[in-house]
Amino acid sequence: MDTWKFYDVTHRDHVVCNPSSPARLDELIALLDLPPDPRVLDIASGKGWFLCRLAERCGGPQGAGVGGVAIDVSPFVVAELRDAVRERVPRAELTILEQDAATYRPAPASFDLAACVGASWIYGGLRRTLAALAAAVRPGGQVLVGEPFWRHEPDAEYLAWADMSRDLCGTHPENVAAGEEAGLVPLLAWVSTPEEWDRYETLQWRAAARYAAAHPDDPDLAELLARVARARHEYLVWGRDTLGWALYLFAVPTRTAS
Predict the structure, then answer these.
(1) Is 169 contained in some domain?
(2) pLDDT tens-digit map of 106-120
(3) Burial class for 127, CB neighbours closer than 10 Å (0-12, 13-18, 19+)
(4) pLDDT value of position 258
(5) d(CA 51, CA 48)
(6) Above 60 in pLDDT, residue 187?
(7) How far apart are CA 137 and CA 110, in angstroms?
(8) Apex CA 242: angle with CA 208 and CA 238, to 5°?
(9) Helices 49-58, 22-31: crossing angle, 10 deg rounding
(10) DSSP SS3 for 193
(11) pLDDT tens across 233-252, in order?
(12) At what angle do helices 75-88 and 49-58 cross, to 10 degrees?
């Protein structure tokens, strides 16, 4: 089954495609210290809720004054992103790219905010993601990442079932420390609640069940339902108590002449 079709089906009821609620992201946007007419880089932008809300709050009418670049590799979410920008913030000067974000080469220090929420795999992990985003941000600007973390040491059975490594992520303190080691200043580290995780995970069950009822002849249906069932077992038995999620906001220090 095509990867992006799978995520399109299972995330059809999601406004935000990660375990952060719109309310949490909205509060974070209100705390961003962005200059007038900010330029924003949004890596793995998904359906665009975060970017559109930022343009609504930080720009003029219909997002006027806000500019930047949004990138995602999924043709499904890029189509939804384009629709969202057209409907909500048509005056924002946003370039939308459908491509592997790792191939995008921004001019150094050209953005006021660079974000990658839930897709550090694009750059090969959190530390490389922080380095890539920080390089794109002007001195005094900000870097935002959304990243999982281990609440406690994962069971070997969990790792084997999920076919993942202990190195998938760090602990919550280690994630903050990764930013400090990259020369960034920690500003916020907001952990999602179990209820936010539940909403993110279980909406996928509902979306898959509804899709199965509406598309009984889809040749991908058996694989779709098997993958969702396996993920459900993984989450309920291990993931909910073991894997956390947080938004991490860092500042890029202002460089002064020596």
Answers:
(1) yes
(2) 999 999 999 999 999
(3) middle
(4) 42
(5) 5
(6) yes
(7) 6
(8) 55
(9) 40
(10) coil
(11) 999 999 999 999 999 999 99
(12) 20
CB of 196 closer than 8 Å to CB of 30 = no
CA gap 156, 207 in Å, rounded = 30
CATH assignment at residue 52 = 3.40.50.150
Q: Would 231 be classed as within a structural domain?
A: yes
Residue 124 in domain: yes
Burial group, residue 186, by CB count within 10 angstroms (0-12, 13-18, 19+) = middle
> Strand 111-117 to strand 243-251: parallel, antiparallel, or no bridges (unpaired)?
unpaired
**CA–CA separation, 243 vs 77, rounded Å?**
25
pLDDT at 132: 97
| Residue at 255: amino acid letter | R
Domain count, the chain: 1
36 to 55, 58, 67, 69: CA distances (angstroms): 11, 8, 11, 17
Q: Is residue 257 assigned to a domain? A: no
Tell me the backbone φ, ψ of residue 151, rounded to 5 degrees: -75, -35
| Nearest one of 50, 188, 18, 195 to 119, comparing CA atoms | 18
Identify the pLDDT of residue 257.
42
Range of the domain at 167: 3-29+38-251
Mean pLDDT of the chain, nearest integer: 96
Per-residue pLDDT, averaged over 162-190, amounts to: 96
For residue range 227-236, list pLDDT tens digits in order.
999 999 999 9
Lookup: tokens for 208: 């898959």
Predicted structure pTM score: 0.96
User: Which residues in the chain belong to E strands, given as ranges?
Assistant: 39-43, 67-72, 93-98, 111-117, 137-150, 185-191, 243-251
